[in-house]
Amino acid sequence: MDAVTAPPPAAVEIVALTKRYAAGTPPAVDRIDLRIASGSYCCLLGPSGCGKSTTLRMVAGHESVSSGDILLDNRNITHLPAAARGTAMMFQSFALFPHLSALDNVAFSLKMKGVSRVERHRRAAQLLDRVAMGHLAQRKPGELSGGQQQRVALARALITEPRVLLLDEPLSALDPFLRIQMRAELRRWQQDLGLTFIHVTHSQEEAMALADTMVVMNQGLIEQVGTPHEVYNHPASEFVARFMGGHNVLALPHGLIAVRNDHMRIAPEGEGEGLAATITDVEYQGTYVLIGLRLADAAPAMREASVQLAEKSFAARPYSVGEHVRLSWSAADARALGPGAIRPEAPPAGTPSVRQPLSALATMAA
Ligand SMILES: Nc1ncnc2c1ncn2[C@@H]1O[C@H](COP(=O)(O)OP(=O)(O)OP(=O)(O)O)[C@@H](O)[C@H]1O
User: Which fold has domain 12-233?
Assistant: First the structure.
């Protein structure tokens, strides 16, 4: 097989995966279960400290597992060394060797495997061509832009012919403009290569732009798994609604609901029904105006709300800070929120760690 032909994609299954860094401390990852479809783009998303990097590092084999299992194409890789797993990692800072050319950076792992110079350079050059970097093969990382370094890092990860590419905040070292450009490139590469990508990010926007499947994590648990559309339009819990942003969480007598702030209606006091509120901010954002509000009859933690008004609507009836208004929404736009992730009970001693066979992986197909 040619070195640059994409190998068959793989599916990853994580079963009751747990990481406890020190006895007596809460687990960083707590018995999570997750299936990632072959050839899909999966984003692990959550606030700092939620356990997403720990999960990725355990899949990569860079962190030991406290309990649970990781399967790749039905093969248990939990205790295999990183190089024997069929995964490759692309790091935040790309971790390129500064004294080596792009070509030698890409060829490095083949050198370690004892592949001849001619052969490893041939394969590295092919991969650099593939990421449109062939013409800069002799440059050192310091002579390349951030985006070019990212492509070299990608080529270097691909030379081991991984079935799953693991990316830990791969865009965060780039400036905002380049980040959006490279984000689109990552997505294109993933589709071209047909590989499974697992990408860790704390950016909702990045995950929404890239993912077939978003996995929202909170305190070592998975709060929600779904397509970006599902997660944004049907947040499972208060945590997800607040973390994704763009939602109001409202306490009603029958429980909490979330309503997207572009689905809220606003009317001047006396001209409409709904929750009484006072305007605290008015922010012009170009295509829309974001109105910040304080609800009159809500508990302190639930008092803030926002409404996104199309620029035209705002121009037709401008609002200003201090104005008293009423907020309402259609029942069809309200999403009942569940309690969120429930920490699982500790399994009884002696329970086998792989609880279910790898089957029906298509459930999360893109
Ligand atoms: N090597 C370590 N030793 C001890 N605790 C650790 C170690 N690495 C991470 N932790 C802890 O485990 C928890 C999860 O960390 P992790 O890095 O997985 O989170 P994260 O969601 O990736 O956060 P970030 O976005 O800040 O990288 C945190 O409470 C963190 O302090």
Answer: Rossmann fold (3.40.50)
- CA of 163 from ligand 1 middle (Å) equals 26
d(C-alpha 6, C-alpha 358), whole Å: 23
ipTM: 0.96
Per-domain residue ranges for the chain? 12-233, 248-336
Q: How far apart, in Å, are the Cα atoms of 307 and each of 99, 246, 268, 289?
A: 53, 9, 13, 8
User: Could you tell me the distance, in angstroms and rounded to a whole number, from the CA of residue 29 to the centre of ligand 1?
Assistant: 9
CATH code at 248-336: 2.40.50.140
Q: 46 CB less than 6 Å from ligand 1?
A: yes
Given strand 247-252, what is the order of strands in its sheet?
247-252, 255-260, 335-336
* CB of 52 closer than 6 angstroms to any ligand 1 atom: yes
pTM: predicted TM-score of the whole model, two decimal places: 0.87
Q: Render pLDDT for 90-133 as a digit per residue (tens, 0 to 9).
A: 876 667 889 999 999 999 988 888 889 999 999 999 989 888 88
| CA of 50, closest atom in ligand 1 | 21
